[in-house]
Amino acid sequence: MVQDAIDLSDILDVEALRADCLAALQDEGKSALDRRAAVLAVLRSASTEGRKKIRRLLDEDGGGLACAQRLSWLQDQVIQILHVAVAETLQPEASSIAVAAVGGYGRDTLAPGSDIDLLFLLPAKNSDAMRKAIEFLLYVLWDMGFKVGHATRTVEECIQLSKTDMTIRTAILESRYVCGAAALVAELEKRFDAEIVAGTGEEFVAAKLAERDLRHQKSGDTRYLVEPNVKEGKGGLRDLHTLFWIAKYYYRIRNAQELIKLGVLSRHEWKVFQKSEDFLWAVRCHMHFLTGKAEERLSFDIQREIAESLGYHSRPGLSAVERFMKHYFLVAKDVGDLTRIFCAALEDEQAKEAPGLKRVISRFTKRVHKIPGTVEFVQDRGRITLADPDVFKRDPVNIIRFFHVADIHGLEFHPDALKRVTRSLSLIGNEVREDEEANRLFLSMLTSRRQPALMLRRMNEAGVLGRFIPDFGRIVSMMQFNMYHHYTVDEHLIRSVDALSEVDNGGAADIHPLANKLMPSVEEREALYVAVLLHDIAKGRQEDHSVAGARIARKLCPRFGLNTKQTELVAWLIEEHLLMSMTAQTRDLHDRKTITDFAEKVQSMDRLKLLLILTICDIRAVGPGVWNGWKGQLLRTLYYETELLLSGGFSELSRKERAQQAEQELYDALADWNQKDRRVYSRLHYPPYLLSVPLEDQVRHTRFIREADQKRQALATTVRTHSFHAITEITVLAPDHPRLLSVIAGACSAAGANIADAQIFTTSDGRALDTILINREFPVDEDELRRAATIGRMIEDVLSGKKRLPEVIATRAKAKRRNKMFDIPPSVILSNGLSNKFTVVEVECLDRPGLLAEITAVLADLSLDIHSARITTFGEKVIDTFYVTDLLGTKITNENRQGNISARLKAVMAEQEDELRSGMPSGIIAPAPMPARRVQAAPRRPKADA
């Protein structure tokens, strides 16, 4: 019992509380309702004070399991005292019922926000008075604010229901006497063991494991989600509970520690069980206390505070919260190891030969078979296992060979074999790591055309991968505290290999056709697989992980058997593995300097192919929904533009000649128009538009402009969806205005649209033709078009003055509130070397509603003309890039002016969302309503091709 291990005297004065409750109920001068209110006040005050003391003790000693037991003990006292008081004052027949705790409460543990699960046992001959007593107990507990799950049954009813309902069977399995008629609980336990448990162990085990698998599927089937569910998630408390249920039911034991005597767990493994349970309970209790509710998801919002409560501190390369979460995932991994070891022992137990006919059947169905090409391993019903217990001791390389044989023959893993792998990890030393055969086998698995990610994941779960590659071991269970990455670093790398394998086997061609087209022509396939596995292996270090990762690769690749050329290729790919992604997402791909700079770094078509495929695999493995068609289109555009340059395919025509040619092509494409309109509308556009916008879109835009002119619309919008690109395009035609992009961005933010890109052009008659690309939300075009039309109307309403931008932005302010958990210092970089014509302004900061509108407003205040913008969101962080000139069309070269731009932008980026004023956010001026007739405004950029 918890009382034996923990001093509880300071939590609650039991005798005093019992006396107070009896006095409250015995006060005959009050009505029954008033007496209930009085006892309620006494118990509520005692419970509240007791919980405060328990929380203080948790902060002092950090004992998670102790906290859960203290809360359970406190709840026991409340129920016991209430039951005695009712029996002695209101309903004497209450003493004839029994109150038993079930569920987690039955295990003598409670979290601060847990339900109180109770079973009220009635004698076979019961009365209404007993049920009224139960009702009184329940009402008091409910009025105290507890969530009480309850059932009222006789012993016979419990037995009958247990035969058909596995949930009820599990609840009764954990029942624990709290107060009342103890004989009823003893009778239930005796009959339950004899009539339900006996002979049904295998049935119960199968049901609980199936239930666990279903639960894991619902939670993503991985224990490496960066916002894990501490209770229900893979590797969480429920997995430990499942082990306890199975152990208690199958082995007929009362305490999980008895598994040591049975040989199921070693003493070391039992200590791991205890430490894992204590840690998970500590996390869960802190979560409930912190949030004031039964919060089970360890979300970003509370991770920092939980880490602080548990006493974690920052270390070089890892923040306190990242160290805490790494510990959490290591514990979740330990829970997985315990599950595997436990299941192995369970299967061994079930496989023992039975007498008579069963023995013959068992020998026939469970005999092992040889595996061709090996004498060390055998097959047991499609699962690889060891031919004898000393396989790994004789030759530790057999640990690597074990997974290789499983890969070649497509075998599942026998849990007993995996248990032996886990217990043999100390055999993997430098001798095994440097062994030529071991490395050859590993590279063969990594580059297998079957399921390399499955083998890597099994090796990782068993602890082999981190032992065989110590640098990989450093990033096992490591998380990055941001909203962009969904998995731990090791899980991300394994998923990257899985994505590469899918490309290699021709899968998912519908989402990245270019990569699938290029993969068969890749000559350095082995180098690509190694680069994908190792590209983030240096995360969590003080230095740049790309540079450090390249250094690690130069050490590991020769060990794996790669030659010097392959090693340098892998090192280059790792060092530049972010280059293509960042260039595609944050640079103007229609700016020639972007392509030439990128090509200078890539230098060859072979590198370009490999880098493209690596980039796609990396993005796809970040998490669900991170990869989309728009990113694919950006990468394809960058690839094709660079391919032209590397192969010498760029046109030798001057920019002016190419613009004239494009204007003629637009004129020709409008053949069904009259000559006057063809001439007028084909001359509306400046060279930047003609050279960067496809002819098909030029025609569509020109028809849109003419239609707006015919309707005498000064302001108009048109939308188009791109299902493959997962992008929706909104084109705005309006009188030019220095703050036009700012207003459009604010309107999109107010409508909940995430801007991915912006193309900004001015027509020769002074109008703005801006195309905003937003991330698609709905899979069906009709739904997405309706959404886009709503956003278009929002833009028109804001531009026309029908709606005020600050008010509509404020309605979205709560959407990014959780971003406050992150600290991203505002950064501004101005560069004149990234473009031949423009100054490139790159800002990086914490995302929030209306941010883009504020930034573009500041740029307008500073008399900067935005020519193009690239908007990129990485979880809670944004990196926005603007190609700007001054109003004369020249770069910003004055150092004082550059400093002023940087200071103004940092000031607006530093503002927090709760500081958004009720008026227009900083830098934004409400536009005057647009006039009904066309306005000839001064163009935002000169007509000459500067």
Automatic annotation (TrEMBL):
InterPro entries registered for this protein in UniProt: ACT-like_dom_sf, ACT_dom, HD/PDEase_dom, HD_domain, NT_sf, PII_UdlTrfase/GS_AdlTrfase, Polymerase_NTP_transf_dom, UTase/UR
Sequence ranges assigned to domain HD in this UniProt record: 489-605
Annotated region described as Uridylyltransferase, given as residue ranges: 1-372
ACT domain residues: 729-810, 840-919
GO molecular function annotation: [protein-PII] uridylyltransferase activity; phosphoric diester hydrolase activity
Regulation (activators, inhibitors): Uridylyltransferase (UTase) activity is inhibited by glutamine, while glutamine activates uridylyl-removing (UR) activity.
Keyword Magnesium in record: yes
Catalytic activity: [protein-PII]-L-tyrosine + UTP = [protein-PII]-uridylyl-L-tyrosine + diphosphate; [protein-PII]-uridylyl-L-tyrosine + H2O = [protein-PII]-L-tyrosine + UMP + H(+)
One family name in Pfam for this protein: HD
Protein keywords: Hydrolase, Magnesium, Multifunctional enzyme, Nucleotidyltransferase, Repeat, Transferase
EC number(s) reported in the record: 2.7.7.59, 3.1.4.-
Gene Ontology BP terms: regulation of nitrogen utilization
Annotated spans, Disordered: 919-946
Cofactor or coenzyme needed: Mg(2+)
Superkingdom classification of source: Bacteria
Coiled coil: none
Recorded domain comment: Has four distinct domains: an N-terminal nucleotidyltransferase (NT) domain responsible for UTase activity, a central HD domain that encodes UR activity, and two C-terminal ACT domains that seem to have a role in glutamine sensing.
HAMAP family: PII_uridylyl_transf (MF_00277)
Primary role: Modifies, by uridylylation and deuridylylation, the PII regulatory proteins (GlnB and homologs), in response to the nitrogen status of the cell that GlnD senses through the glutamine level. Under low glutamine levels, catalyzes the conversion of the PII proteins and UTP to PII-UMP and PPi, while under higher glutamine levels, GlnD hydrolyzes PII-UMP to PII and UMP (deuridylylation). Thus, controls uridylylation state and activity of the PII proteins, and plays an important role in the regulation of nitrogen metabolism.
Family from the record: Belongs to the GlnD family.
Full protein name: Bifunctional uridylyltransferase/uridylyl-removing enzyme
Organism this protein belongs to: Pseudorhizobium banfieldiae
Gene name of the encoded protein: glnD
